[in-house]
User: Which sequence fits this backbone?
């Protein structure tokens, strides 16, 4: 009887140890950059030029714009409630893609005066998109960093 009880106890301990050490097969895969970018719309949060906050210098009509990225490489820029030019359409379509191992975001339209259509991705999370690019203002090239949020 002792031998059977000892065998049963050892089997139970082995089974408990075996199952407690197994890896969880339902590991969560982090979202891709495309999934993060296309999950929801983006709106302006802040901007710096050469480390100085310039958010207050941007026009309201630029700060209320809404960017929407679709997973198929298209998107739209909605002018928001305030338009810089009343004759501009409310929405402007664009195309987009990643370049350089998804470190550069190319948008087929220029978003800011003095800028271009390629942005270096500083960070991209579930809640923020931070991009940078060199802009030329009054003949001087400076680095601009822009943060968009959901």
Assistant:
């Amino acid at each position: 009887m002792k031998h059977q009880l000892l065998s049963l106890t050892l089997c139970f301990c082995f089974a408990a140890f075996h199952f407690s050490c197994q890896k969880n097969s339902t590991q969560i895969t982090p979202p891709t950059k495309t999934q993060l970018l296309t999950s929801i719309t983006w709106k302006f949060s802040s901007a710096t030029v050469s480390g100085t906050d310039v958010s207050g210098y941007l026009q309201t009509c630029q700060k209320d714009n809404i960017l929407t990225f679709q997973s198929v490489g298209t998107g739209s820029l909605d002018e928001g409630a305030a338009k810089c030019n009343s004759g501009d359409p409310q929405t402007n379509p664009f195309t987009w893609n990643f370049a350089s191992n998804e470190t550069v975001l190319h948008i087929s339209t220029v978003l800011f005066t003095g800028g271009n259509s390629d942005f270096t991705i500083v960070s991209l999370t579930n809640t923020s998109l931070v991009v940078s690019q060199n802009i030329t203002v009054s003949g001087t090239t400076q680095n601009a960093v822009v943060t968009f949020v959901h």
Summary: The helical segments are 2-21, 33-38, 60-63. The two ends are 67 Å apart (CA to CA). Residues 4 and 10 are 10 Å apart (CA to CA). The longest helix spans residues 2-21.
